[in-house]
């Protein structure tokens, strides 16, 4: 650009050529650090998981890395614990997310009303979201404690139960107790997302409907729900992934027990690798779980892909 | 719904009371934990937690004998490091996504979204093997790298939505005045989206601070972030609930305070894409 000997025209020419080249290269140059790092720390490890899942790889025998093909997957499909975990996973995700959505919707509708302490309520409602999952898990273990827990005491005083229930030690209640905890943790997210959707609905719709004599219920059904359907959809799909990752709460609360009552697929994969050091089999379960989630993810991408383009 | 103003009484019954009930459900466990943490360990099981003989003993014990200060420092290094890595890589990438049209843009953008969608359990096993091979187990770097797998794609998406909010004409004006692209980015766009950068940074900080599974798997002995430390307070035979809940309160405090500070901006950034989509 500072070539002093060049004539004006050729200088201009070169400058613009350089600018075009710059325009073409610059976007990639600015992207490359992020892309390269994610390739190294996300995609490479992911491929490695798939690779490990095709091998017999137990960490305390680090020199044995034998190719076994799909053997790990075949084992998984005939593994009783795998099917128990799959069943629990479906119950776990299939109830946690609707419960969060419903409670979140109610909360959002309330927060969308006019009342004096609304800003305070809106700030406080999100607190569970900012808490570390370990703290959440331990807090609820203490609440569920069979001897001194406040949950039992509360229910006993209300006369709803006759004797203390060991919530997390009883196979019949353990999963449900965890689902309540996860609902508590996640519903504020829905509330906040849905509230944003509610506030994007033009007030004039309601005014017009009221003039036409539509009842509050009809307004909700024909204006509010369609207005927030998109947000709810996105929130549910986002939450699916987050709930899938929230097995740390289960890990801390019950470790998958009693028995296999709270085993879920990601937890099972994690425990296999962590306790049994069986990284081959653990990877296979992780891969299977991911493939199941993928169905959901593809669905999500098709939605967001439309928004991006 | 919107036109006629309901009477105050009706509002209290249909809005205020249900809201109070939901807030009680939301905050109850947290308050219960706090109450337990300021109760005397010896009377906890006989009289239950109470405000009457409140004590800070659990907190002093936490820092004196358990050495919680070191854990706080570990958490701080890991979370701070992740913020630096996440932000420095994502700002230029987000600018590129926001301002340029180029080949493979859509694929690259979706790729970053896709990373967010992969379950953590798929990454934790190979990262452990990788760190073992590299000899990085039980170091801060290992945890920073692991947390970055979540932080980088997330902050790119947040930053794109913030930079999209700044008119293109501003950087074009700066370039007409003789700035290069990068100068325009540094002098015009960055200052304008500073609030967005701060919000994203705080969000990364919170998620890294709260992260547990990576910390447990890749750290644990030398480097023991607060989340792992709290969990180890569960003894083999008995649980010291007073100490444990005090640890929980201390561990949760930084993230909660930061979160309350930026929640408005953070949520508008998070929901923008969703509402539009």
From TrEMBL, chain A:
<keyword id="KW-1133">Transmembrane helix</keyword>
<feature type="transmembrane region" description="Helical">
    <location>
        <begin position="90"/>
        <end position="111"/>
    </location>
</feature>
<protein>
    <submittedName>
        <fullName>Carbohydrate ABC transporter membrane protein 1, CUT1 family</fullName>
    </submittedName>
</protein>
<keyword id="KW-0812">Transmembrane</keyword>
<dbReference type="Pfam" id="PF00528">
    <property type="entry name" value="BPD_transp_1"/>
</dbReference>
<feature type="transmembrane region" description="Helical">
    <location>
        <begin position="279"/>
        <end position="301"/>
    </location>
</feature>
<dbReference type="InterPro" id="IPR000515">
    <property type="entry name" value="MetI-like"/>
</dbReference>
<feature type="transmembrane region" description="Helical">
    <location>
        <begin position="219"/>
        <end position="242"/>
    </location>
</feature>
<feature type="transmembrane region" description="Helical">
    <location>
        <begin position="123"/>
        <end position="143"/>
    </location>
</feature>
<dbReference type="InterPro" id="IPR035906">
    <property type="entry name" value="MetI-like_sf"/>
</dbReference>
<dbReference type="GO" id="GO:0055085">
    <property type="term" value="P:transmembrane transport"/>
</dbReference>
<keyword id="KW-1003">Cell membrane</keyword>
<dbReference type="GO" id="GO:0005886">
    <property type="term" value="C:plasma membrane"/>
</dbReference>
<feature type="domain" description="ABC transmembrane type-1">
    <location>
        <begin position="86"/>
        <end position="300"/>
    </location>
</feature>
<feature type="transmembrane region" description="Helical">
    <location>
        <begin position="25"/>
        <end position="47"/>
    </location>
</feature>
<comment type="similarity">
    <text>Belongs to the binding-protein-dependent transport system permease family.</text>
</comment>
<feature type="transmembrane region" description="Helical">
    <location>
        <begin position="173"/>
        <end position="198"/>
    </location>
</feature>
<keyword id="KW-0472">Membrane</keyword>
<keyword id="KW-0813">Transport</keyword>
UniProtKB/TrEMBL annotation, chain B:
<dbReference type="InterPro" id="IPR050901">
    <property type="entry name" value="BP-dep_ABC_trans_perm"/>
</dbReference>
<dbReference type="GO" id="GO:0055085">
    <property type="term" value="P:transmembrane transport"/>
</dbReference>
<dbReference type="GO" id="GO:0005886">
    <property type="term" value="C:plasma membrane"/>
</dbReference>
<dbReference type="InterPro" id="IPR035906">
    <property type="entry name" value="MetI-like_sf"/>
</dbReference>
<keyword id="KW-0472">Membrane</keyword>
<feature type="transmembrane region" description="Helical">
    <location>
        <begin position="76"/>
        <end position="95"/>
    </location>
</feature>
<feature type="transmembrane region" description="Helical">
    <location>
        <begin position="141"/>
        <end position="163"/>
    </location>
</feature>
<feature type="transmembrane region" description="Helical">
    <location>
        <begin position="107"/>
        <end position="129"/>
    </location>
</feature>
<feature type="transmembrane region" description="Helical">
    <location>
        <begin position="241"/>
        <end position="262"/>
    </location>
</feature>
<comment type="similarity">
    <text>Belongs to the binding-protein-dependent transport system permease family.</text>
</comment>
<keyword id="KW-0812">Transmembrane</keyword>
<dbReference type="InterPro" id="IPR000515">
    <property type="entry name" value="MetI-like"/>
</dbReference>
<feature type="transmembrane region" description="Helical">
    <location>
        <begin position="12"/>
        <end position="35"/>
    </location>
</feature>
<dbReference type="Pfam" id="PF00528">
    <property type="entry name" value="BPD_transp_1"/>
</dbReference>
<keyword id="KW-0813">Transport</keyword>
<keyword id="KW-1003">Cell membrane</keyword>
<feature type="transmembrane region" description="Helical">
    <location>
        <begin position="184"/>
        <end position="206"/>
    </location>
</feature>
<keyword id="KW-1133">Transmembrane helix</keyword>
<feature type="domain" description="ABC transmembrane type-1">
    <location>
        <begin position="72"/>
        <end position="262"/>
    </location>
</feature>
<protein>
    <submittedName>
        <fullName>Carbohydrate ABC transporter membrane protein 2, CUT1 family</fullName>
    </submittedName>
</protein>
